[in-house]
Design a protein that fits this description.
Blueprint (H helix, E strand, L loop, with lengths): L1 H6 L8 E6 L6 H12 L5 E5 L7 H4 L9 H6 L4 H4 L1 E2 L5 E4 L8 H5 L2 H11 L4 E5 L8 H6 L4 E7 L5 H13 L4 E7 L3 H8 L2 H4 L1 H6 L13
Parallel strand pairs: 1-5, 1-6, 2-4, 2-5, 6-7
Antiparallel strand pairs: 3-4
Length: 221
Amino acid sequence: LRTGILMSALDTPHKVVLVTSSVPEEGKTSVAMNIAFSLANVKRTCLIDADMRRPTIARILGLDANAPGLSHLVAGTEPPARCIYEYEQSGLYYIPSGAIPPNPLELLSSKRFSDALKKLEESFDIIIIDTPPVQLVSDAVIIAGVANAMVYVVRADSTPYQIALGGIEMMRKGRAHLIGVVLNRLDVEKAERYHGYGKYFSYGGKYGRYKRYGYASGAKK
């Protein structure tokens, strides 16, 4: 995923990448976090929790739920230094949701939000934004207007094709630039049994033997 994002815009690197899905429980937050941690190995990266309906990044990373975050940064009630955190020497910086505002959509569609994002772009090479599911609220559609790229997460054997396609179309109407779809929680054995994908997954073992010669030294990243 990291390589796909970096290779999708060699001449004009993506500065702001939005991660979303159609409905809850598809794993978009996990995907956003793993992409951010991986990118932090090679780029100065910031992860933003803009899912202000059900924020989870602060809890997952062990931060107090009441800690200053995105809402404080946008409102100007806290300085950036108190809203941006670094996770345990990983190189990843992140901004939790902060206090939940009465109307998250109003905050995310404000000029203060876009201005805060532009300011962050000056300090980071790439920004990953975790947003709410598209089919529930329009927050992600609004954020798409200030993002450079979108990664769309679909849960295998769970999300109906029509629902996922409808969500992607909604995002495109919001000017989102789709660079890829992540098929999450794929049952490899089932895919092999019913769709004949086994021959592709078996390639992993063939490439693995080259690691000792140094040809795939970065393969695990």
